[in-house]
Amino acid sequence: MENALRACGAEILTGRPSVPYANLPFGDSSTEPSALATVLRNFVTAANRQLPGSHPILVLLKGFTKLSEPSLLGRRRAEAVEGVLKSANLKNPIIIVPEVGSGKCAVEVRIDREFEASFALGQREFEYNVAAHEFGHMIGLPDEYENPDTGPKLIVKKNYNKLVARARLIGPTFPWHTSSMMSDGMTTLNWHYVTAWEALGALTGEFLYLSEWAIHAPGV
Description:
Blueprint: H1 2-7, E1 11-14, E2 20-25, H2 37-47, E3 59-65, H3 71-87, E4 94-96, E5 101-102, E6 106-111, H4 113-120, H5 130-138, H6 151-166, H7 194-203
Parallel strand pairs: 3-4, 3-5
Antiparallel strand pairs: 1-2, 2-6, 3-6
């Protein structure tokens, strides 16, 4: 979700240590979000790419006003942003912070980063299946929670990324801690089928091109 904030093209600022947020400016006395619609929809697109099985991280909206504006205007700005996010089908729950900030015409979009980070730190756990994870290694899938830069694991990662590209898929980002079965969870994703896809191509190569096989599976 933090990556979604960064991917949406909004200005990313840092408040408290390690708590980024997007600052979405409004015009003076305005509650019209149309100028922000593209940025907000890009945020929704990136946020909705979270893996099946991932906990829906809370999105927090806080409205702001200039000192000369009524505080109610800040609330209406936050509600306008909420409306765009909901109309774009954001999967995450949204909460409008009751307090209205002052000093600017804007809405801040934050995420509950402490909750999100708790999975990477091992403070919370996804459902996990060791057998599925280890079977994935048996068919050539690398660990997604690490990013080797030397040795045999680097070779495996490079070859795997090439195979994912040949299958015309977008693979995992190394390292990441997610609900993927090759990371910290047990969700099977489209790129987990690429070695089987390659094997089917080898078995049927006399009759079919590899490109005639396609992977249709849940993924991001």
